[in-house]
């Protein structure tokens, strides 16, 4: 049996074991309420993810409002709760299992030019299965939003970042320049776990190397500096992931005015075509029974950057040319599904010293199972214009000791790279440690779109990320790869005879290694998205929703999730999505006060 098959078998066994343990533990999540055809609520929230869970919880603080939260999945499993086990969740029942395909000539090192797009299908959504990095972005991100959608400036957004966070890093909070940007009053715990001596040595080596190529060491990634390198903060505490299910729904579960319908999928928004008013939602239960539920005040769609546009289009809200092709009656002609954006990633691999075996790393990693069992650092940099008001690139590093059995698993299963590339990575790792640098383009020009495969709600949406379809993105990403490759000339890597690994990449044979042509070929064919999709229902006067997140031309209907972002933030998107949920809840409360 191969390593891949062993891992798949072990993963299934582990998930069954964790499910069994969870089944005999006292219930900690909200119970699922029973809904019946014709039930009426004040608000219906579709999707209990990073934003939807917050909106439902905050609205239910008004005790005379009845709130229904519709969630297609169930409770987060223990593999979600325990921070280090998140890698076991993709391609399980807790994942929507979506895919995207790169355009011809792009992503050729991926099998079938395909990348999987894990999306959380459980309470907490993607906040229950993501990397847990707590990153907010930079002021200019939100000031740009505010220029197309008044009310979303940095000054306003910071108010809601502070409302949601419980920032528990004393080093940061004791520094006045940083403490003013944070709060201890919110429900979302933010920590920076202490690491063992082995991981600390790796930290110091990598931090030192980045400092040598010109990056300043900074106190935190969410501080006032535009660029620099540091260790990240995470959404976990006391051995638990702090998802929106944990931070909000768990603490709202005893509210009698909050009904959470699990394993319930929204398939259509009920709209009065005469008055252009959303009246409710058609849903399908786990039993396959279909029923209608109604909202006196509003329907709030928080199903994410793929499922929110899908639901709107199935309901007759979208580009008329697309809807007419599928014989869907057009209620509102809006650019739903367009303007899809994502962060773009090139993985740069450096070989380090010989001799540190993977078993040594695993010995320490098992002690960190309640945190994040890999020494990682993060930061921002620009490659061309140091005076830019937004960073061009973010990065995370990962460390893999020599001869790691994990390499083919991550390479083939998680990233879907072909055998040629994965075998060459494994060969590079055979006797030497690897330092992986995930180089993340934050504001690519390339855009994609979400469309419908058919009018059947069982069909997945068609997701075209449009990755590297603009030539300037290829050039800039190649320049970033060259910038990071300079790490091989720093003191540590020179001392241990380290180097950039010469990985075999489809389409790059015959090119001089590390030449300009090579790096363009490398990034073009090994590229991935960072699964930070936004913008498919973006806000703006000529887009899908207004600055209050109300759908243009439709009464009593809002979209509240990452799909409304008019541009990519300089950050992992989970925390900005939480911020959107907090601000939207206040907007709704103010409207009905």
Distance between the termini: 63 Å
* Fold-level CATH name of the domain at 3-131 and 244-339 and 536-591: FAD/NAD(P)-binding domain
Radius of gyration from CA coordinates = 23 Å
Q: CATH homologous superfamily of the domain at 3-131 and 244-339 and 536-591, by name?
A: FAD/NAD(P)-binding domain
Question: Which parts are unreliable, with pLDDT below 50 for 5 consecutive residues or more?
Answer: none
Fraction of residues in helix: 25-40%
Please identify, by name, the CATH architecture of the domain at 3-131 and 244-339 and 536-591: 3-Layer(bba) Sandwich
Q: Number of helical segments? A: 18
The backbone outline, from C-alpha atoms, is globular
Mind telling me the CATH class of the domain at 3-131 and 244-339 and 536-591? Alpha Beta
Strand elements, count: 24
Mean pLDDT over all positions: 93
Strand content: 15-25%
Biggest sheet descriptor: 7 strands, mixed
| Category from helices, strands and their pairing | alpha/beta
Give structural notes.
- Strand 1, helix 2 and strand 2 (about 65-70) form a beta-alpha-beta unit.
- Helix content is about 30%, strand content about 20%.
- Strands 1, 2, 10, 11, 12, 13 and 24 form a 7-stranded mixed beta sheet that branches.
- The N and C termini lie far apart (about 65 Å).
- By secondary structure, it is of the alpha/beta class.
- Helix 2 (about 50-60) runs parallel beside helix 18.
- It has a domain at about 5-130 and about 245-340 and about 535-590: FAD/NAD(P)-binding domain (3-Layer(bba) Sandwich).
């Amino acid at each position: 049996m191969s390593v891949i098959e062993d891992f798949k078998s072990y993963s299934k066994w582990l998930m069954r074991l964790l499910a069994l343990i969870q089944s005999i533990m006292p219930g900690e999540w909200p119970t699922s309420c029973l809904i019946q055809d014709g039930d009426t609520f004040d608000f219906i929230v579709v999707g209990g993810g990073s934003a939807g869970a917050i909106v439902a919880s905050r609205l239910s603080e008004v005790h005379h409002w009845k709130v229904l939260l519709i969630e297609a999945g169930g409770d987060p499993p223990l593999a979600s709760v325990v921070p280090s086990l998140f890698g076991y969740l993709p391609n399980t029942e807790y994942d929507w299992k979506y895919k995207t395909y790169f355009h011809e000539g792009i992503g050729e090192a991926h099998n079938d030019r395909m990348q999987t797009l894990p999306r959380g299908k459980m309470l907490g959504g993607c906040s229950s299965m993501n990397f847990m990095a707590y990153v907010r972005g930079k002021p200019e991100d939100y000031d740009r939003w505010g220029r197309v959608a008044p009310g979303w400036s940095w000054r306003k957004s910071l108010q809601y970042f502070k409302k949601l966070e419980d920032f528990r890093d004393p080093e940061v909070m004791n520094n006045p320049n940083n403490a003013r940007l944070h709060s201890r009053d919110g429900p979302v715990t933010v920590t920076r776990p202490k690491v063992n001596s082995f991981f600390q040595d790796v930290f110091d080596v990598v931090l030192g190397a980045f400092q040598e190529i010109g990056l300043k060491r900074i106190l935190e990634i969410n501080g006032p500096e535009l660029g620099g390198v540091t260790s990240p903060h995470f959404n976990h505490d006391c051995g638990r992931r702090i998802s929106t299910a944990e931070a909000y729904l768990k603490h709202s579960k005893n509210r009698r005015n909050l009904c959470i319908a699990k394993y319930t999928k929204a398939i259509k928004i009920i709209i009065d075509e005469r008055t252009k008013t959303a009246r409710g939602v058609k849903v399908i239960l786990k039993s396959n029974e279909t029923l209608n539920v109604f909202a006196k005040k509003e329907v709030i769609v928080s199903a994410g950057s793929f499922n929110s546009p899908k639901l709107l289009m199935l309901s007759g809200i979208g580009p008329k040319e697309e809807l007419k092709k599928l014989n869907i009656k057009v209620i509102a002609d809006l650019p739903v599904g367009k303007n899809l954006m994502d962060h773009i990633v090139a993985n740069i691999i450096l070989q380090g010293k010989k001799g540190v075996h993977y078993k040594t790393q695993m010995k320490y990693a098992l002690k960190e199972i309640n945190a994040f069992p890999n020494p990682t650092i993060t930061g921002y940099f620009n490659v061309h214009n140091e005076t830019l008001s937004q960073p061009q690139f973010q990065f995370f590093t990962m460390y893999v000791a020599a001869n790691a059995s994990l390499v083919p698993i991550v390479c083939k299963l998680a990233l879907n790279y072909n055998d040629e590339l994965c075998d060459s990575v494994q060969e590079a790792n055979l006797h030497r440690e690897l330092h992986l640098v995930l180089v993340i383009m934050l504001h690519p020009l390339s855009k994609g779109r979400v469309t419908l495969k058919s009018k059947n709600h069982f069909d997945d949406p068609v997701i075209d990320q449009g990755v590297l379809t603009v030539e300037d993105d290829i050039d800039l990403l190649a320049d970033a790869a060259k910038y990071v490759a300079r790490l091989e000339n720093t003191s540590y890597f020179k001392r241990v005879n380290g180097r950039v690994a010469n990985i075999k990449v489809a389409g790059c044979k015959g090119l001089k290694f590390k030449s300009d042509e090579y790096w363009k070929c490398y990034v073009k064919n090994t590229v991935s998205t960072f699964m930070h999709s936004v913008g498919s229902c973006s806000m703006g006067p000529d887009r899908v929703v207004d600055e209050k997140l109300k759908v243009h031309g439709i009464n009593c209907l809002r979209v509240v999730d990452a799909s409304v972002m008019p541009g990519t933030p300089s950050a992992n998107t989970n925390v900005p999505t939480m911020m959107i949920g907090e601000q939207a809840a206040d907007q709704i409360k103010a409207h009905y006060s």
